[in-house]
């Protein structure tokens, strides 16, 4: 998450490919005065979006057997308060004032925010569970919202995240989280010849200081997978280790004994789609769909061969 800068930039400069896709009516921009809110994908471009998301789920289905769940766009404000989100990143959450809830006055408009990540729904669902397990995987796709105004065409206020959450034994969460991330990187490497990985820090998981940033980098709490985009590198996914932060706050697992840990591996589907399409011949979404199927088949046979 990036702390918003001020003053707010005028608006995004769509890249040439984005203009092309708009002309073909495959994509439309959702904008307001502060910049780009999000994208709507149409026809074959939406098919490629679904193919990418579906491939990520298929990639991990056999080995991790994730339990899938859905998400609401709205999240209880309390959930973010309990993990100190507003103390660390007060400007990121977008507050929701849906008319129906406002009219009903119960629980009241200020009780809701637009969800900034999908894993809070997973943790919320497991809250208070009195069970311990070695390792379980959960997955959800959700529209996420963050207020990080920027002139970049890939920093959206509304975007789609596919997330896998691992919960269980501390060592297993780290080792399996790492191999899951590596498998995703290998899959993306079949679709693009210039995929890179780097360690990152996130102000959310500590104080906003240089010391914390370095400690996080040294501990490898966050790793990102990047694909070139518009002369720069774009983070299309990340692996975050939370230790027992969320399991403790949300009360996941029985009292007593070592706390279970959690990690998440998350992907931004809009970023992935645009960055991969930029490398696809003719920026053709149907061609990208075919490449995704081939890469998925190759990835599965690589897993079975080991
Ligand atoms: N504002 C955004 N617009 C589009 N995609 C995003 C945005 N923020 C995050 N994502 C996508 O969701 C993925 C997982 O979210 P995560 O919280 O790890 O991102 P992040 O570290 O905040 O991203 P960044 O480093 O770009 O600020 C990111 O790797 C990225 O692909
Ligand atoms: Zn997460």
From TrEMBL:
SUPFAM superfamilies: Class II aaRS and biotin synthetases
Gene3D superfamilies: Bira Bifunctional Protein, Domain 2 (3.30.930.10)
Name under which the protein is recorded: tRNA synthetase class II (G, H, P, S and T)
């Amino acid at each position: 998450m990036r702390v918003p800068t001020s003053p707010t930039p005028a608006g995004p400069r769509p890249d040439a490919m984005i203009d092309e896709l708009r002309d073909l009516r495959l994509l439309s921009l959702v904008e307001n005065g502060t910049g780009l809110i999000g994208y709507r994908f149409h026809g074959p471009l939406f098919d490629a979006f679904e193919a990418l998301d579906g491939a990520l789920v298929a990639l991990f289905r056999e080995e991790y057997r994730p339990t899938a769940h859905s998400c609401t766009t709205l999240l209880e404000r309390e959930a973010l308060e309990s993990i100190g989100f507003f103390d660390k990143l007060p400007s990121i959450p977008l507050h929701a004032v849906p008319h129906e809830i406002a009219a009903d006055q119960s629980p009241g408009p200020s009780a809701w925010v637009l969800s900034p990540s999908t894993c809070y729904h997973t943790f919320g669902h497991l809250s208070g569970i009195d069970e311990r397990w070695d390792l379980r995987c959960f997955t959800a796709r959700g529209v996420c919202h963050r207020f990080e105004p920027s002139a970049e065409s890939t920093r959206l206020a509304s975007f789609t995240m596919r997330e896998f959450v691992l919960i269980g034994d501390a060592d297993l969460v780290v080792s399996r989280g790492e191999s899951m991330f590596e498998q995703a990187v290998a899959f993306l490497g079949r679709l693009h010849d210039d995929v890179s990985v780097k360690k990152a820090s996130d102000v959310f998981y500590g104080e906003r200081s240089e010391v914390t940033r370095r400690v996080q980098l040294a501990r490898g709490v966050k790793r990102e997978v990047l694909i070139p985009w518009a002369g720069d590198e774009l983070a299309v996914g990340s692996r975050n280790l939370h230790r027992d932060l969320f399991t403790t706050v949300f009360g996941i697992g029985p009292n007593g004994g070592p706390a279970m840990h959690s990690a998440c591996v998350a992907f931004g589907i809009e970023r992935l789609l645009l960055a991969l399409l930029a490398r696809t011949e003719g920026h053709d979404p149907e061609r990208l769909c075919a490449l995704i199927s081939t890469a998925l088949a190759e990835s599965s046979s690589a897993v079975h061969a080991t």
